[in-house]
Amino acid sequence: MTPTTGDTSAIEQCGSCQARLALRLPSLRAPASPWLCRGCSAAFIAAPQLRDGRPFIAGIRPGCYYDIIQSDRRHVGESIATGDELAQLNECFNTLVREGPDSRQHPRYSLAKRVRALPLTDDLRVVGQPFNALTVNVSTGGIAILQACAPSHSYLAIDFSDTAAMLPPVLLKQLRVRSIGPAYEVAGEFVSRIET
Asked: What is the top-level taxon of the source organism (predicted)?
C-alpha cells in the first residue's frame, strides 16, 4: 500500500504495473468486491475509494468474482479430504479440549467443511490460484483453516460455495499460522464480506 492522501487504508498503486489506482481496504461498512487494474488487469479484492461520499473509480474497472475465484480449476488440486474424512474430523472436533489462552473475542465452533481460498497481497492483489482448504473452527469474528501449502500472504479470500452453508465469501486477515504435521493451520479475523 502506498497511501498519499494520509489515509492509511488507501491503495493508490498497482503492485504489478505501478499504475495509479483508487482502492482502499474494505471494512464492515464498505465491503470488498473484485476490481481489475486498467493497466495490467491484475485482480484486486478491495473497496473503491470515496470522494464526496460516493465511490471514485480511477485506474480500475469492475471484475467478476466468479471468474477470479474459479480461475482455472485445474490448478486447485485434489480435495483436501473425502466426505468420510470430513465426518471423522467433525467427530474429533466435537470431543476436542482446547488448552492454553484463547485470544478470540467470540466463542468458536469446531467445524470441518471444504472451502476455497485465494491468496492476496497486502494491497489485496490476487497473487496465486485458488486452493482447497478445510475449516477447523469458526466464530462470528474469524475462522481457522487447514491448508496444505505454507501461507506466504497476509490476506485470503475465503469462498464457501462448495459447502452447503449459505455464507457469503469473506476477506480474511491472517493473524496466526502454526504447522500441524504436513499441513498449516491459518487463523484470522474477518475484514469484510465480498460482494459477488
From this structure: Bacteria
Question: Cell triple for residue 77?
Answer: 488440486
Residues 109 and 127 in one domain: yes
Task: Please report the pLDDT score of residue 180 as a whole number.
Answer: 84
Is residue 64 domain-shared with residue 36, that is, in the same domain? yes
Task: Count the helices and strands in the chain (H runs, E runs).
Answer: 2, 13
Phi, psi of 88 (to 5 degrees): -65, -40
At 131, the amino acid letter reads: F
Residue 51: how many other CB atoms lie within 10 Å: 11
Percent of the chain with pLDDT over 70: 79
82 pLDDT tier (thresholds 50, 70, 90)? low
What is the pTM assigned to this prediction? 0.81
H/E stretch holding 68: helix 65-69
Q: Which residues contact 100 (CB under 8 A, 6 or more apart)?
A: none
In this structure, are residues 194 and 45 in contact, taking their beta carbons and an 8 Å threshold? Answer: yes
Q: Is residue 3 part of a domain?
A: no
Amino acid letter, 147: Q
Q: Is the dihedral of CA 186, 30, 44, 63 positive or negative?
A: positive
User: What distance in Å separates the CA atoms of residue 92 and residue 111, rounded to the nearest whole number?
Assistant: 10
